[in-house]
Structures are given as structure tokens and as C-alpha cells.
Amino acid sequence: MAKALSLHNGVYLIIALALIIFPFVTESRTWTILLTQIFIFAILAMSYDLLLGYTGIVSFGHAMFFGIGAYSTGIFLKSFEPTLLYFILSIACGMVLAAIVSFFVGILTLRLKSHYFAMLTLALSGLFLVAAEKWRTLTYGNDGFTFRAPEIFQDRLVFYLVALGCLLASFVFLKRFVSSPMGRVLISLRENESRTASLGFKTLHYKVIASVAAGVIASLAGSLYAISLRFVNTSVMTMDITLDALLMTIIGGVGTLIGPILGAGVIELAQHYLSGLARENPIFERWIILFGILYILAVIFFPRGIAGGIQSLYLKLRGKKVGVHRSLKKRVVKS
């Protein structure tokens, strides 16, 4: 077990160092921007994995926390000087608002089970979307608004490193969170909530805590997304955002944390290259159909997601290796 953990940590460290070095060894602006988008959506997908993969909660309202972060940053930087201090304050404000909203949403909805909870979160998310559309004095409705980013982010390399740093910090935080005793309780909730309650745990409290943590991390992703575009409109609160997070989590591997990062990479790269093919050849104009086929193939060939498939292959190869060593040992003992 200790060897496996050290191997995983070593692989994570190598990947992190490679991503840090990458922009310094390539001059591709396209790849820098694309990887930055992947980092942002990976943070969102990891926050969703905390709900779906570790707590067993299917939420259709995750986009509202993403939108809260995006609007907080956009409104702050439009209303005040676009300095690094106000950017940090906007992230903090978005996180606090997301925590408050997710707390009350959790109290109201998490008493419900399965699809009833999912439908209510969808309704609440729709309520926030309508509020964003109608409160034009603050959000400018569907038209949205532009704003200036802090001068330091004019250099895409700096923003790339900031987004990567936020991704790594979120991953470490969530990894520690799910590995803690509280994380073990969340996993037991996912497996059998009634049995967990019979052991004396107040299941609602744990689910609300998971909901708050997921909402805060999603808000961080929203703030970074707003800065990357220098523009915010109601699209940040649409169902598409929640579905993207859901697809990234399922394709990458539910309940793994590293899986959503892989899923974000696959989906963002697929969207980039398929939409690029549509510009070059009219036959690919309906590229979203090809994207759907790609998703179907991923689910068929990787039912546990990419990370789950790799893990299964590793355990299978390791089991064969252990079996060979045992058979050789038996032969040596017999001889």
C-alpha cells in the first residue's frame, strides 16, 4: 500500500513539474491558452467529483456556484480598479457567497433522495439563472459585460501558472479532504447511507459539508474562467456547464480526483480539434455529433472512466506479476 501511494505521488509530481516547465520550452500561444482552459475546467470537474464520486450526490445545479464565482470577479473588477488585490478579494467574496448559498441549498435539498434532489437542484439553478438575466443593473442580462483584468495577467504565461497553481492546490486540498476521517464517512454514505446513519453519524451534516466544499471549489473555477475571457454573461450559469462537469467526471473516472482532470483534458481537446476541423471542411460542421460518438465510445470501452481503466490494468498486471513470483517461489521451495 505504501509503495503504491509513493508511486502515485511520484507520478503526480512528475506531471506537475512537466506542466510547470511546458510553457518555458514551447512558444505555442494556442497550447498555453488551451491548457489554461483545461486547468480551469479540471478544477470544476474535481469539485463535482467530490459530490458524485465520493458522496454519491447527483447535482444538476453545480453551474450556479461556478456562475457566482464568475460574476463576483467580473463585478468586482468592473466596479473597482482592476488590481491584483481586488482580484483576490473577488475570489474570496465569490467563495464566501458560494459557501453560504451551498449551505442553505444543502439544508433545503439534501434531505431528499436521488432524482428528487437532482430535480430540485436543477430548479434552484434555473432560479439563479433567471435572476442573472433579469437583474440587468448588476449583471447586464444576457448581453453580459466586459472588464479589465489585472495588468499582471496581460502575460498569458503568468495566468497559466496561476491557473496551474490553483489546480494543484485544489487537488491537494480535495485529496486530503477525501482521505480524512470525514472523507471516509462520505464514502460510506455513498455506499450505504442507512447503515452509516445507524452507526450514529448525522448524514445530513456530512453531505452539507461536502456540498459547501464542492461549491467553494467550483466558485474558484468560475473566477478563473471570468478572468480568462475578460467577459461574463449568463452562459456561466447554464445547464451546459453542469453537463460539462458531469461528462468530464464520468469520462475521466468517478471517485478518483485525477480522473476529472483527464476528462477535462479529453473534452477540451476534442472540442478544440473537432471545431477546428469544422472550419477546414464542411463535412465536420456537425462536429457535436462526432463529439457525442466519442463520448459513447469512451463509456463503452472505459466503463470506469480513463483513470479507472488504467487502475484496473495496473492491478491486473500487478496481480500477474505477484502470481509469477509466487509460482517461482513454490518451485524453488520444492526443489
Model description:
Pfam families: BPD_transp_2. This is Leucine/isoleucine/valine transporter permease subunit. It is a multi-pass membrane protein. One of its GO terms (cellular component) is plasma membrane. The chain has 335 residues and is mainly alpha-helical. The protein has a domain at 14-238. The chain is built from 14 helices and 2 strands; from the N terminus they run ααααααβααααβαααα. The mean pLDDT is 86.
Specify the overall morphology: globular
Largest sheet: 2 strands, antiparallel
Helix count? 14
Low-confidence stretches: none
Q: Give the strand order, joined by hyphens, for the main sheet.
A: 1-2
Beta-strand portion reads under 5%
Number of strands: 2
Write the layout of secondary structure elements.
Blueprint: H1 2-25, H2 29-52, H3 63-79, H4 84-109, H5 114-134, H6 136-139, E1 145-146, H7 156-179, H8 181-191, H9 193-198, H10 203-229, E2 231-232, H11 239-252, H12 258-280, H13 287-301, H14 305-334
Antiparallel strand pairs: 1-2
Helix pairs in contact: 1-7, 2-7, 2-10, 2-11, 2-12, 3-4, 3-10, 4-10, 7-10, 8-10, 11-12, 11-14, 12-13, 12-14
